[in-house]
Amino acid sequence: DSGVTQTPKHLITATGQRVTLRCSPRSGDLSVYWYQQSLDQGLQFLIQYYNGEERAKGNILERFSAQQFPDLHSELNLSSLELGDSALYFCASSEGGHPGNTIYFGEGSWLTVV
Amino acid sequence: AQSVTQPDIHITVSEGASLELRCNYSYGATPYLFWYVQSPGQGLQLLLKYFSGDTLVQGIKGFEAEFKRSQSSFNLRKPSVHWSDAAEYFCAVAAVSGGYNKLIFGAGTRLAVHP
Q: Which of A29, A44, A92, A97 has a C-alpha 20 to 30 A away from that of A72?
């Protein structure tokens, strides 16, 4: 158990809909990351927050957004869903933003868009 | 740009045999390198990491990896594989820019273990 908690674990929704994925980082971790894992794209970095502020953006679509709240939990919002958005979405956390900080991953949220 | 290449998509070994998973990276500075393992239906678990110092690093579950700067490699090894090692293994490099870091992952190597 990494200490990173993600909900829901599985989600099935229709095209055009909007979903919210939730993440609670490890206790004490200030950085939260979101990654997408799909068969064709592999593991892709989406976005990083540090202590409530957005720090870096990766290959995140404009239809997707995220935020980190004062209690440090984070949410990833996916809207106008398409079939191609079906993937495993990982949240991860680390103590800080230094590359020496180990990044711990949650078990992921499986999203299926039908 | 930073990148990670794992040349082997699938590897099959017999239980008890030795294992080496290859990883090559592209990074301008001294890299921060990681190996993660993903078991079916599970998240990513850190096996080991390299920042500096001794180029041979020990990790959990009996794994080790050797950093070779001249070859831009960070291969993962295990002397004797157990059936429970069947999983997907990801090599990653931490890319640092503007005060943040992110992990860039390779495509992964899926390991199958024959009894």
A: A44
Q: Express as a percent the part of chain B with pLDDT over 70.
A: 96
Interface contacts A/B by beta carbons within 8 Å: 55
Nearest Cα neighbor of A11 from A93, A75, A89, A91 is A89
Superfamily for domain range B3-114: Immunoglobulins (2.60.40.10)
pLDDT at B87: 97
Interface test with A, best of B93, B96, B102 (most A CBs within 10 A): B102
Where does the pLDDT of residue B40 fall: very low under 50, low under 70, confident under 90, or very high at 90 and above? confident
Which amino acid makes up residue A24? S
- Nearest residue in chain A measured CA to CA from B39: A107
Residues in chain A within 8 Å Cβ distance of B45: 2, 105
Q: Which of B51, B55, B81, B58 is nearest to B66 (CA)?
A: B55
Q: Which residue type, as a one-letter code, is found at position B16?
A: G
Q: What is the distance in angstroms between the CA of the first residue and the CA of the last residue of chain A?
A: 31
Residue A57, CA distances (Å) to A54, A61, A80, B32, B61 in order: 8, 10, 20, 20, 33
CB B24 within 8 A of CB B12: no
Domain residue limits, chain B: 3-114
Which pairing describes strands B109-114 and B10-14: parallel, antiparallel, or unpaired? parallel
Q: How far apart are CA A24 and CA A5, in angstroms?
A: 5
